[in-house]
Amino acid sequence: MLYLSSDVGGTFTDLVLVDAAAGQMVIDKVPSSGRSADAIIQGIQRMLEKTGRPIGDLAGFIHGSTIATNAWLTRQGADAVLLVTKGFRDVLEIGTQRREHNYALTARRAPALISRSRIIEVAERIGAFGEVVESLTDTEIDRVVDVLCELKPDAIAISLLFSVRNDDHEKRLAAALRRRLGKAKIYTSVSINPELGEYLRANTTAAAAYVGPELDTYIDSLAVKLKDIGFASPLMLMRSDGGVATPEAIAENPATMLLSGPSGGVIAAAALGKAIGLPDMVTFDMGGTSADFSLIVDGEPRLSSERVIKDQVLRLPMLDIETISSGGGSIATVDHAGALHVGPLSAGSRPGPACYGKGGTQATLTDAAVVLGLLAPSDFASGDIALDPQAAYDAVHATIAVPLGMSAEDAAAGMIAVACSQMRQAIRALTIERGHDLRTFSLLAFGGAGSIFASFMERDLGVEQLVIPPTPGVFAALGILLADIRHNAQTPFSAGLQDLQPQAMSDRFAEMRGRLDAALARDGVEPPRRAFHYYADLRYQGQFHVITTVLDASDKGSWDLATVADRFHAKHRQAYGHSDPDSAIEIVNLRLEAVGSVDKPSFQRVAARASGEPRPWSTRNIVVEKGGRRRPCPVYRRADLLPGHELRGPAIVTQSDTTILLLPEQSAQIDDYGVIRITSGGRAR
């Protein structure tokens, strides 16, 4: 049986087809088609043609999408309305005190996802302990429904005060709205984010309403197009927490797809790290539009229950991924003061970089790599895209070199230096500023553009080594195939850790486990393949922010509270540089994660071994730094490199999905899994 995954980026759509029985894998990249699913259908048909297999052999398809991400980042989401308790119309505008520069005299506040004019107050009130302070009358429900019938929104978010203590009012409103506004998407805060704190709950529910309609339309369109080509197996979707879910589960909370695309690469990185014995890694995923960074610590991806995504704070389980606008298609500009900038605008796939020959005239990082000889028409994307070096040179010369008064080669080298500086800063913020020693981490680079620029990063960051997986250009798509089914639940639970009544907590977890167990059953996961992981949001008494801490990862449901306290103190020291073991610890929320293990491919050792030195298939002249001269550089094919082979820079390694660069001071070794390990200033490890 065949299993297929796809990862849609801003420039390319990556696909991986695995024949588990034969142990074979086929990869492909096709230009992305914006918000349409056409590129996916084209890619599936191309993959099946390559293998000569009918579509009926496909046992499953898992899809990672940037539809929700792009709607979010471009602020082109749905026309949504938010219903709030009377007196709380300004909840999104007030927000929190959090801002980028706390002591700035002037601060720019990000606009709310839903404007104040689209926030409707509802005359009702639930108290802090779930008591009804003001009843929600049928007359008030009718009034609210009438108002919304006139507004005709695409989506409705409902977030009433203390609804997590008593959800009756939210449920009654939602039921009435569904009867009268059948087409509108309706999201309640008790379903999206059942936690205390009116702002984060309201904002997270608003986020679901903001991206939901477009995501639902896209998924429905994809399902229809898959059916049209004869696909009849289950469709699954990648979520931001590193798990996969059915379209029905995604429809309940579309905000879980906000980081769908980058999550696959992190899952693949963790799996590869366990196979090759590297438990601590920084992941570096650079595609055509952006660069994504994450941490693997002790073999596990870092998961966060609270994230800031483009100035908006959300409370959802998500992999801890940081994104900046540095990709192969990122456009370079020179401002009026003569400063060089790279990003945030991207050329995308249409028109794409100037070297693609599709009408692009602005200089991008890909054009810079072509000007320096790091990319060449003879081996780029297996010849599917014909590079135009002259167009790349003209774009860099006209838009960057002339304004800066330098050669095109120096301008191209400067573009790469600026982009790498931005990316190094993002990695330092993710590691050093959180108490991690970069010298003990490996840098794992993937994505279509990652392997070109990662060599500069390895040289300047001081990491242990640079690791390039066998298929870096489609690594995130491969990771999507490695992901398990996941469901999450959370509930408020206010208690002191020291005087906790364990049975009360066990009862609350039992209720959540029942719901998640039923969800896994609906997904077809057999009981032996189900696992449950228990967490609590903890804080010192008097604090506001919480730290999510493992309670019990063994699925036994027993609580060693002294060990839990020690874990919390350690995480607090890691995050803030200090802890207070004498202070009382409070439990704020309980969290449960349900994991349904699925059949998946695994990384395999390469049977063949090297005999003799690797032979380059060509040579070309390259420039690797500003002011540098062109120098001959051997070019190797990745398929010719076997375990035991060693390379010394400068060198270029080409393959169908990416190009890998070794700088003059770097050396590389091919390990037993076909992974390229690169180090600076000495023999490869």
Automatic annotation (TrEMBL):
Record-level Gene Ontology MF annotations: 5-oxoprolinase (ATP-hydrolyzing) activity
Hydantoinase/oxoprolinase N-terminal domain sequence ranges: 7-179
Domain of life: Bacteria
GO cellular component, one term: cytosol
Pfam families for this protein: Hydant_A_C (PF19278), Hydant_A_N (PF05378), Hydantoinase_A (PF01968)
GO BP term, example: glutathione metabolic process
InterPro entries, alphabetized: ACX-like_C, ATPase_NBD, Hydant_A_N, Hydantoinase_A, Oxoprolinase-like
Domain Hydantoinase A/oxoprolinase: 201-488
Residues covered by the Acetophenone carboxylase-like C-terminal domain: 503-676
PANTHER family: 5-OXOPROLINASE RELATED, HYPOTHETICAL 5-OXOPROLINASE (EUROFUNG)-RELATED
Protein name: 5-oxoprolinase
Lineage start: Bacteria, Pseudomonadati, Pseudomonadota, Betaproteobacteria, Burkholderiales
